[in-house]
Amino acid sequence: MSGLTVESDVDQASAGQRPARRGAAARRLVDRVGRVRELGILVALVVVVAVTAVANPAFVSPQSLRDLLLNASIIALLAVGQTLVVVTRNVDLSVGSVLGLAAFLTAQTFAANPGLPLLPGLLLGVLIGLACGALNGLVVAAGQVPSLVVTLGTLYVFRGLDFTLARGRQVNAADLPDALLSLGSGRLLGIPNLVLITLVVIAAGALYLRAYRSGRELYAIGSNPDAAVLAGIPVGRRVFVAFTVSGAVAGLAGALWMARYGTVDAAAGTGLELQVVSAVVVGGVVISGGSGTVAGAALGALLLGTITSCLVVLRIPAFWQQAITGALLLAAITVDRLVALRLAAALRRSSRAGRRDEGG
Amino acid sequence: MADRIRAVLRWETALVVLLVAVAVVGSVRTDGTFLSGGNLFYLGLDIAEIALIALPLTLVIAAAEIDLSVASVLGLSSALIGWLWTAGWPLETILPVVVLVGAACGALNGLLVTRLGLPSLAVTIGTMALFRGLALVVLGDTAVADFPASYTQFGTTPVPGTNLPYPILLFAVLAVVFAVLLHASSFGRAVFAVGANEEAARFSGVRVKRTKLVLFVLTGAVAALAGIVYTFRFSSARADNGTGLELAVVAAVLLGGVSIFGGRGTLGGVVAGVLLLGSLRNLLILDDVSTEVLTVVTGLLLLVSVLVPAVGRRLGRRVDNSRLGRRVDNSRLGRRAGRRAATSAAGPP
Amino acid sequence: MGQPGTGAARSAPGHPAESGRAGTPVVALRGVEKSFGAVRALRGVSLELFPGEVHALLGENGAGKSTLIKTLAGVHRPDSGAFLIDGRQRRLSGPAEARDAGIAVIYQEPTLFGELSIAENVFMGRQPLRSGRRIDTAAMRARTAALFDRLGVRLDPDRPASGLSIADQQLVEIAKALSFDARVLIMDEPTAALSDAEVRRLFRVVRALREQGAAVLFVSHRLDEVLSLCQRATVLRDGEHVWAGDLAGHTPDDLVRLMVGRELSALFPKQDVTPGEVVLSVRRLTREGVFVDVSLDVRAGEIVALSGLVGAGRSEVARAVFGIDRPDAGEVWVAGQRLRPGSPTAAMAAGVGFVPEDRRQQGLVMDASIERNAALASLGRLGPLGLVRRRAERRLAQDWAVKLRLKFARLTDPVGVLSGGNQQKVVLAKWLARAPRVLIVDEPTRGIDVGTKAEVHRLLSELAGQGVAVLMISSELPEVLGMADRVLVMHEGRLVAELDRAEATEERVALAAAGRLGVGG
Which Gene Ontology molecular-function terms are recorded (chain B) (predicted)? Predict the structure, then answer.
């Protein structure tokens, strides 16, 4: 069927051009919304930092800024995995527990085997997380059960497992190899190692979601699950992989958590899932799937982390942190919703006008 | 379809059979301790808050929504009791105020869900953090424990002449109220209709938004009530009271046979689910199992109670692409909520 | 349904039918059976599609067309019978395999990913790659633009698919089909929601595809379109293969007879009633971007039909009158009382009932029982203090089941097990139980069998005889002409014509629906 062309005539021009013009307008609208989100986070970041800096100028010292990035890096890492899951119209609430389990088991392995080289040890953390994520993915994809319920269940199963294995013990920095601890506290070219690792994962996640077929298919699944099936996308397999990657990233985060803090007990990472989901949503990943970027999610994590640090600097009790996290999440989804409603109303008004232009 | 109704009946029968089995195994393993009056009293106490919150949450889930903030409302209510008591308020004033605050928390959830059309999952994950955070703001990490014995005794002594804990008496009364509400009132009919097909409910004149709002408010109020029970039972008001309890409550409701996709479930089933959950926990405690294992078991129960119906749905249907076709039908025809679309099974075209 | 005059108004004369169908069909079904539970959707259906033909698939709603299309698309697998591609028997495991075999389906409402760009929608799963298996965005965009050039349309490959008109969405789907060199193009009622210009553009594209050697299966209810575009047709009735052959020399009436298996006169005509007072009065109702300035009156005992093309805004007017959607301007009065806008409860309290267009999604709670559905609009009347007496609920359902001659096993059965016609009776029972003053019915006989159709017509006529004001939306002209005392026609969101019973002919209504007849006829 190559070489097919359709003669154009007057009628065709009227039918064809207008949509293109309207298309451009609609795209500008959507673009603007997307940019507003990332811009909004940046503005919020600047405002928060500026206000805090006025109260305490030391807040913008290089060391302090480094700490800011360092503190946000674990959440940002988890946010990358979570983005993969959320764009498919799912959610992974078990990441905090997976992090805890991976952190404790890896730390225990290092403590029990003093000669263990760094890389296999870290890989163990990734593998533990991968296994947990695969379990989530299997139940969600094969059982066709809402991911919310599944990962709420595994949140407690993994955490309970963690506590059962730990039996109240904790691994201290003294039990861990020096190489590991220096990985957690060291820097390269003035940038903390953890931040570099996080940046690499963010870049890999962004590249995957933007430039690979299976990455784009995750968006398609979240955007319109039925159409995804009709387009021949292996929906179950893709969702399974998204959960597995989220688990593996959480496992890596667990290993890095251990390297950073040195002391690990079974409670490591408790409640992180809330911060991660908040970061992702604040970062513009739509909770109902189909759109959002890894970079936005990471920025969301940075904003949340910065606010936490500011609370400390401004001597606001740390008790406020959780309430603020919750309020920010609510504000983010509310704003998203209001924008979407506006957009829908604008499209409704423009569509009939466009149709009338075209018609007889 | 008819066999699906039978499947629901089977589910409840299975629960009762399981319950009897657990009771028999339990009393054999513990030489009768399990069924002793004293143990049943503790079983009842242990499950009290879960049982209370499960009642309104049954209606919420039957309406195809979810509320994950219940445990945080419980914590906020506990923290408020401690704070106001320390500030010198009389308990007669504090308790109604706390229930009202719980209702207000529910109203916030409900308004965000109904007025803005936000998914209740996202909203209540947010308010789960918000309400727990407010509890921490109110009370910090301190504990208030100097409540008068005239109140705390309700959490430690049985109703005179029985082995029934007072909170379970409260549960029994509320269970009857909620059963009538769900199964014998126009409100209950509306709840099921909204859960099974929100659009058809709206086209039949059901006030969908108001129905949902009422459900969230009820849930908030009962969660606050559960906070009062919790506080007096342990004679301790803390901001982190009941952390993670939402898991057990959701598990109990789903174990009771309420469909996570809405539209189906019975209050009787949920009562059986609560009792089963309580019995299993109690048995594990009698076996000296740690609370961590309890958590694992509760989590697994939750998984099982969503997986078994899912497997049933799969077996109940022909293993065929036709399901896929019907899913496509649904989405093309209607704007059915996303999570229903994934597994809904309408009839043949 | 259509008369020759309508055909002339819509499109150019058709190509002469080509005969001499040598060689193997590109796709063929032989004696295909498909059942869903107890319902036999396809009973021994055969179909042959040859390269270079546009083949019509005809049948009433519920005849099995959708199932047949989904079987070709790889969504359904036949229970028995043969599925041949290029003469070789195949068993498709899913939509992807159908696509790889060169079969493309364009569903009535195209299945696009709203958040993704048009180019991505065209190439989803098959994006062009560059080094490192990365997606070559530039090539994807260029190839999409090239496809649109071939189709002679201008669409921006970079804009997101959400917000595209149905016609443009179809073009994206056609571009998708071209992108993988589809040899078979299946189009499920593609023209249902298109304007004239859009239909002409679509037909030009389809004819060009045919000349390129593609086989097109075209499903439409507009027989004039079918006769102008298609060379051959296959007709289904109740899941059975009724006829297949050349369309040359056939008239729309022939085809209708084949489809329904009876003469048109079998439809039940409305009895004459002297209309009473105005009961429903709609004044300058507007919902921006959907419909504008709609005013109409319906008197007691009168059946007023709201006609027009799909997408003209008829259902939307009904939704706004009943309060499902809130209008931006205008008023609705029932028996001299102004309704609170956007409130179904207020409309119901004033005596309005509404049988919606989409029975499965809007009319019924499919998983709930017959009695629950029948009582759903009467909940407040079944007991004191907001309680529901089960016996009252059962009696209500029982009474109406008898009155409407509902065929059912048990009232506790889910309404989903009933046939389409009986389901519609349950919807009607739900509203009749409230003894409405005004009944709005949107496509009341869509997808139900002929016998029940006549029953529904008789019922509506009786209701009007009892003084109920009926506002009926229907896409079936014979139904409109047979039932209505007055016909109001909408075009592009506006009322464009009002025809009384004597003036209303198929031609006039169709012309008005196409926007070619002034107000007042």
Answer: transmembrane transporter activity
Average pLDDT rounded to a whole number, residues C182-206: 83
Q: How far apart are CA B197 and CA A123, in angstroms?
A: 47
> What's the maximum distance between 2 C-alpha atoms anywhere in chain A?
82
pLDDT digits (tens, 9 = 90+) for C125-141: 889 999 889 999 999 99
Please state the three-class secondary structure of B102-142 as a single string. HHHHHHHHHHHHHHHCCCHHHHHHHHHHHHHHHHHHHHCCC
pLDDT given for residue B217 in this prediction: 98
Provide the 8-state DSSP code for C414: B
- Bridge partner list, C43: C33, C240
Contacts of A320 in chain B (CB under 8 A): 133, 136-137
Alpha carbon distance B147, B231 (integer Å): 9
Q: In which band, very low, low, confident or very high, does the pLDDT at A345 lie, cut at 50, 70 and 90? A: confident
The segment with the largest mean pLDDT, out of A22-31, B337-346, C29-38, is C29-38
The rounded average pLDDT for each run of 10 residues, N- to C-terminus, in chain B (349 residues) is: 56 86 87 86 91 97 96 97 95 96 98 93 91 94 91 86 90 96 96 96 95 98 97 93 89 91 92 92 84 85 85 59 35 32 31
CA distance C54 to chain B (A): 25
Confirm if A287 and A89 have CB atoms less than 8 A apart: no
* B303 Cα to chain A: minimum distance (Å): 6
| Chain A contact set for C208 (CB, 8 A) | 4-6
Helices B2-29 and B291-316 pack at an angle, to 10 degrees, of: 150
Q: Which residues of C touch A223 (CB under 8 A)?
A: 113-116
Burial class (CB in 10 A: 0-12, 13-18, 19+), B163: middle
State the Cα–Cα distance between residues C7 and C196, nearest whole angstrom: 11
CATH number, span C264-351+438-521: 3.40.50.300
The count of structural domains within chain B is 1
Is any Cβ of chain C less than 8 angstroms from the Cβ of B2? yes
* Every domain of chain C and the residues it spans: 4-17+51-75+93-112+164-261, 264-351+438-521, 366-435
Q: For the segment C220-263, what is each residue's pLDDT rounded down to a tens digit?
A: 877 788 888 999 999 988 788 888 889 888 887 778 778 766 54
CATH class (in words) of the domain with range C4-17+51-75+93-112+164-261: alpha beta
Give domain limits for chain A. 32-50+59-350
Rounded Cα–Cα distance for residues A101 and A253 (Å) = 11
Q: Does residue B345 lie in a domain region?
A: no
- Which amino acid, residue B255? L
Instruction: Map tokens 């999604």 to a residue.
Output: C361
Whether chain C has a CB inside 8 Å of the CB on B177: the answer is no
Please report the pLDDT score of residue A63 as a whole number: 85
Q: Determine, yes or no, domain membership for B19.
A: yes
CB C399 within 8 A of CB C427: no
Asked if residue B304 belongs to a domain, the reply is no
Range of weakest confidence among B113-127, C41-55, C168-182? C168-182
The tokens for C194 are 């298109």
C-alpha to C-alpha distance for B114 and B100, rounded to whole angstroms: 20
**Choice between A45 and C309, residue whose per-residue pLDDT is larger:** A45
pLDDT tens figures, B222-261: 999 999 999 999 999 999 999 889 888 998 999 998 998 8
Subunits in contact with chain B (3 or more CB pairs closer than 8 Å): A, C
d(CA C517, CA C521): 6
Write the residue in C125, C196, C492 that is nearest to A232 by C-beta.
C125
Give the angle subtended at the CA of A105 by the CAs of A101 and A106, to the nearest 5°: 115
A–B CB contacts, 8 A cutoff, strictly below: 161
The answer to whether C365 touches B193, Cβ cutoff 8 Å, is yes
User: What is the CATH classification number for the domain harbouring B162?
Assistant: 1.10.3470
The partner residues of C494 in beta bridges, in order of sequence, read C491
Task: Say what the pLDDT of residue A30 is.
Answer: 52
| Residues spanned by the domain of B284 | 2-293
